Amino acid sequence: MADRRLQVFHTVARLLSFTKAAETLHMTQPAVTFQVRQLEEQFNTRLFDRTHNRISLTEAGKRVYEFSGRIFELYAEMENAVRDMTGEVSGVLMIGASTTIAEYMLPALLGDFKRKYPDVNVQLKVSNSEGIVHMVENNVIDLGVVESPVMNKNLVVEMCRMDQLVAVVAPGHPLAERGTISIEDLLEYPYICREEGSGTREVIADYMNRLGIEGGRVNLSMELGSPESIKGAVEAGMGVSIVSLATIQKELKLGTLVMLALEPGLERPFSFVHQKQKFRHRAMDELLEFARNYCKSHPDVV
Question: Can you tell me the distance from the alpha carbon of 62 to that of 66, in angstroms, rounded to the nearest whole number?
Fold first, then answer.
């Protein structure tokens, strides 16, 4: 309903990139450029300065960006007011989640939400925690769910639940009968970890730093991009690892992995993260409230 040209301009101005705006809006770059030029023709002035593959807002562009932000806030407020009157909860929500949360925890939550609000189209993007926070910062997604601390103080961060991390080894491994283990003893063996940018890797690195363990002491054998690949490598006897307890329930039942509790213990928060927007679509508010209640009523499963 809002002016498409203004939406496109606002996205380009916020990201200061036609390429990133095209990706965010799921448009081609020529289409984005065309919409911006149409708006410039309407105002009969340039809104961007383009120099050496970089763009910046002109003075006119800064004013249009300021007013467009206010227009979209008013539009969201109007939309919410009407939907409050009609009781309608609908629309499209873009959710982002880090790999562990997306694979093992969100399906149940989003499934229940969809049954309660069938007219809400929830779309899920999966990345590591660093990537999800970046998407929230750039308004690519409405809500992120991450597994590591968020440093950006301009974002709203709300803890959902705590997650326990444990060591895993293959059955028959020399450590398999230990039950509990220190990180020092675990690192005597080849260690398999997640990729750079992973929330799991970041939390484990902080844990090692607190215990005075330097990176040079880690006998790193593999870096892998998902919990599934790490579990497969450990099952194959290629090394030991530290993973979320929530990700190995099936393997523990089947006996293909052995869990060792870390001493001292290691936990991390699973958190919701979103922009500090004064007005949000009602569907977003309903999802946040639904997720908060879900976390309280399902403390062991997101």
Answer: 6
Are the CB atoms for 239 and 192 separated by under 8 Å?
yes
The residue type of 59 is: E
Place of tokens 């790193």: 220
Adjacent-strand bridge partners of 49: 56
Q: Whole domain around residue 194: which residue ranges?
A: 164-266
Residues β-bridged to residue 194: 224
Is 302 part of a structural domain of the chain? no
- The answer to whether the beta carbons of residues 145 and 29 sit under 8 Å apart is no
CATH number, position 23: 1.10.10.10
* Whether residue 66 sits in one domain with residue 212: no
Q: Which of 85, 114, 137 is the last residue of a domain?
A: 85
CATH number at residue 168: 3.40.190.10
Share of the chain above pLDDT 90, in %: 45
Same domain, 259 and 275: no
Which residues have C-beta within 8 Å of that of residue 33, sequence separation ≥ 6? 18
Mean of pLDDT values over 16-33:
89
Phi, psi dihedral angles at 81 (to 5 degrees) = -65, -45
What are the pLDDT digits (tens) for 74-124?
887 787 677 666 666 677 888 999 888 888 888 888 888 889 888 888 889
The total number of structural domains in the chain stands at 3
The model's pTM: 0.65
State residue 90 phi and psi, 5-degree precision: -150, 180
CA–CA separation, 9 vs 255, rounded Å? 56
Q: How far apart are CA 106 and CA 78, in angstroms?
A: 30
